[in-house]
Amino acid sequence: MIEEYYDESVLNGVPAPTMTQCQARGNGIWVEVDGKGECLSYWSAGLTEATPCAVFFIHGDRLWDGKVVGYSDNRSSIQRESAARAAASIGMPLVKIARPGLYGSSGSHSASRQMRELQLVAAAAREIIKRYNIRRYGFAGQSGGGSVVAYLIPQFPDAECFAFTAACLSLQKASGYDYGAHGIYDPIAHISEVEPRSHRRLFIIGDERDKWAPFSNLVEFYEAAQQGGHDVTLVRCEALRNHVLDATGQDTVAWVLQGISSSEIARRILARGINN
């Protein structure tokens, strides 16, 4: 297992190892899209050969206007400890999938939100669900990871919850990235194509003072999901630095899997305050 990940790899990409080298890491998932393989890293705690339920977490971006940001947690030891703490906090297994080009995952982070990234993450999640026989699950996506999680909604029709925290869900009015680039996935443009499911709940959670993921964009996605007949809840809350809500999203998915009502979940989010 690679121990430390450097800023240069965020900017320049991470070359793919062989499938054998990937599998030897212990936390590597070999996945292929369009005939080209990549090795995605994941960190987990609490998984067994037959896992009753689990929370998947997709982290945010680490590039902003061409500069590396928020990458001080760039060590395997930090990721392992973080997964263990999160699983203990939510009271059930947790899986964090590292997006391409980050935390040892091969690929290019500069191509985030393009179809290859989305398909790779989806393929990795499917393999983990199969490997650990995860019967019930949901996804939490923070910031740029929320765009990835939005893509996963129709890909995982059995998932019971999709929680979006400070998420990039409507990109037309966002700033900081070239959202006009070819192949960029804009969640607001696709939510109308997603069929509602009676067992599935969506939670959209954000801080109205957030300058990275404008709350107005969350409202736009919420209204579109509501119009499409989805069971969706919008929660205004206070975030760390007005943006960081990782733990809140993880809690939300766990509460859904525990059968807690949406109104009670919204109350708990507000009652707990900053929890990240």
CATH fourth-tier homologous superfamily = Alpha/Beta hydrolase fold, catalytic domain
**Whole-Å distance between the termini?**
27 Å
Contiguous helical run count: 8
User: CATH top level?
Assistant: Alpha Beta
Biggest sheet statistics: 8 strands, mixed
Give, in order, the helices and strands.
HHEEEEEHEHEHEEHEHH
Q: Provide the CATH architecture.
A: 3-Layer(aba) Sandwich
Structural class: alpha/beta
The unreliable regions are 175-180
Oligomer: single chain
Shape: globular
Write the CATH fold name.
Answer: Rossmann fold
Radius of gyration: 17 Å
Number of domains: 1
Strand order of the largest sheet: 1-2-6-3-7-8-9-10
The overall pLDDT, averaged over residues, is: 94
- The percent range for strand residues is 15-25%
What share of the residues lie within helices?
25-40%
Organism: Bradyrhizobium zhanjiangense
Protein name: Peptidase S9 prolyl oligopeptidase catalytic domain-containing protein
